[in-house]
Specification:
The complex is a heterodimer.
Chain A (H helix, E strand, L loop, with lengths): L1 H5 L1 E8 L3 H14 L4 E8 L6 H12 L4 E3 L8 H9 L6 E4 L11 H11 L3 E5 L6 E3 L3 H18 L11 E4 H8 L6 H14 L4 E5 L1 E3 L10 H17 L1
Chain B lengths: L2 H22 L4 H28 L5 H17 L12 H4 L1
The structure holds guanosine-5'-triphosphate and magnesium ion (MG).
């Protein structure tokens, strides 16, 4: 509890066309982290829907020291968005989460609690355990996810049950170290992050989260993602 | 050590054991010859079983979705996010 107040947490949220979600996610973060020292860093890639206008209004409400808008001119991808956001992070710990409400801010206290209890360098949200779960996936999506997971568990022995989840808390120095050696993009990025961290010997702990697929906006998963995933798996086999 | 090396080492060790078994002929050779086949088949079965079990026990959270939907609706009725002005009336909620 005391440490929770001593540490500072930087929450990095990459956004692209999240006008309908960003205000709610920010509101929920403030609601669930009322006695925590934190800042929110929003990396918006020039969303045409006016996400940045909303963020500016949020800055008026909560203050520019609590909500940092660090935009980039155009859509440059998620991996580099984290690197960009991290440059401005002043916290000891960095939380990475999506803006689309599939990562609920009510889990943030359990991430922080778990880190304090275990002293781990990374806390990762996992959907495939008791108290975790997913909503909004059809049978095909579930099958792909299970297949991909069994394949990765059998070949990589990562020691983490949910490899592709992206709701995580990192010690800042660890995030900087791991992210610099990651080359993958898209789906594989999260898997490469956690596998490399595990190989480097960083302590990783898990907390259960539920994942409700995006309510507002559109989602995609196709054949090309599966090919990318297999390529990423092979890449991790020979490079880590 | 790269991970692929670990896996290959494991496979080489298994092959060495197998060759050892073949030469020692503790069990009939006809059985020993079939061992790699059994290995591959059981690996495949293990994979399919894990996917099957994972699929059957896939944790879902319908109540979370309902809760989130309620939060969304409440929030958007209290704030004006969805209009041309884009104005966010969060002060109401903060007080
Ligand atoms: N800054 C930035 N943010 C992005 C980019 N692509 C996606 N995002 C944001 O990253 C988060 C995750 O993106 P999603 O589109 O939800 O990706 P996903 O969760 O893998 O896929 P679905 O939710 O199934 O569509 C969201 O907050 C997006 O707004 C990008 O190129 N740049
Ligand atoms: Mg999403």
């Amino acid at each position: 509890m005391e440490e929770m107040e001593k540490n500072k947490y930087s929450i990095i949220i990459p956004t692209y066309n999240e006008r309908l979600n960003i205000a709610l996610i920010v509101y929920l973060i403030f609601k669930h982290l009322s006695n925590v020292n934190f800042e929110i860093i929003i990396v918006d890639d020039g969303s045409p829907d006016g996400t940045q206008e909303i963020v500016k209004q949020l800055q008026q409400v909560y203050g520019e020291d609590r909500i940092l808008l660090r935009p980039r001119p155009r859509k440059l991808g998620l991996g580099t968005a984290y690197v960009h956001g991290m440059k401005y992070a002043s916290g000891d710990f960095v939380v990475i989460m999506d803006a689309d409400l599939s990562h609920h801010p009510k889990y943030l206290p359990s991430f922080i609690q778990k880190q304090i209890e275990t002293g781990a360098s990374i806390i990762t949200g996992t959907r495939y355990v008791k108290d975790g779960g997913v909503h909004g996936w059809n049978l095909m999506r579930k099958l792909t996810s299970r297949g991909a997971n069994v394949l990765a568990q059998t070949l990589l022995w990562p020691g983490v049950s949910d490899l592709t989840g992206s709701f995580r808390l990192y010690r800042k120095s660890v995030l900087e170290d791991v992210i610099s050696s990651v080359v993958s993009k898209g789906y594989v990025f999260q898997m490469e992050m956690i596998v490399r961290a595990s190989r480097k010997g960083y302590q990783i702990e898990e907390v259960p989260i539920t994942f409700v697929d995006r309510v507002y906006g559109t989602s995609k998963l196709g054949g090309s993602e599966i090919v990318e995933y297999l390529k990423g798996l092979l890449h991790l086999l020979v490079t880590t | 050590m790269k991970h692929i090396v670990k896996i290959l080492t494991l496979l080489v060790t298994l092959s060495a054991l197998w060759v050892g078994l073949l030469q020692a002929s503790i069990i009939p050779k006809s059985y020993t010859w079939l061992l790699p086949l059994y290995f591959i088949v059981s690996l495949g079965c293990y994979g399919l079983l894990m996917v099957g079990v994972g699929l059957m026990q896939f944790p879902t959270c319908p109540q979370e979705a309902i809760l989130l939907q309620q939060v969304c609706t409440k929030f958007h009725s209290l704030t004006i996010v969805d209009h041309d002005s884009c104005f966010v009336v969060l002060d109401i909620l903060l007080l």
